[in-house]
Design a protein that fits this description.
Length: 160
């Protein structure tokens, strides 16, 4: 699969969304009308620097994306930053506790990409008060949500 250059329109849409590390958690709509809630958009070079090899089964081609917006499942930027700053809980995974404003808590286990999380019925990521890195049960937990990657090349006129 050839990695294509991000269009100017896509770059402008992407610039409106918070970035986690070098990648941006997004919702995207594809040219076939399908909307995907959990997609990381990232510059190809940044992806290789952070993740190394590419799993092509997890890729969405940038040229198939017609719109980019905030994901309804992405942690607020300050909370994802807190988790990334804390680092891994163990080799290749992160454990954290989500605290909701109403007292509900969830224990979550993810890989090293932590942005997309499930929410209990009636709550959203906007209802999250805090996250506690390296806290929570590794026996009774929910997994982070499945996601895809979209890699793109920069048009070299501005940083992505």
């Amino acid at each position: 699969m050839e990695i294509k250059t991000i269009s100017e329109d896509q770059r402008k849409q992407l610039a409106k969304i918070h970035t986690s590390q070098d990648w941006t958690p997004c919702q995207v709509t594809l040219s076939n009308g399908v909307t995907l809630d959990n997609v990381y958009l990232v510059n190809y070079d940044d992806y290789l620097r952070s993740w190394g090899g590419i799993n092509y089964e997890m890729l969405i081609p940038i040229e198939e994306i017609t719109s980019i917006s905030e994901s309804p499942n992405a942690l607020p930027a300050s909370l994802s930053k807190k988790l990334y700053d804390a680092g891994e809980s163990g080799m290749g995974y992160c454990v954290f506790k989500i605290l909701y404003h109403n007292g509900v808590t969830l224990d979550i286990v993810t890989g090293n990409a932590v942005d997309f999380v499930p929410s209990p019925h009636g709550l959203t990521v906007q209802n999250i008060k805090d996250v506690l890195p390296h806290k929570g049960s590794t026996q009774a937990y929910l997994n982070g949500l499945d996601y895809k990657w979209c890699l793109f090349k920069s048009n070299n006129t501005q940083n992505e």
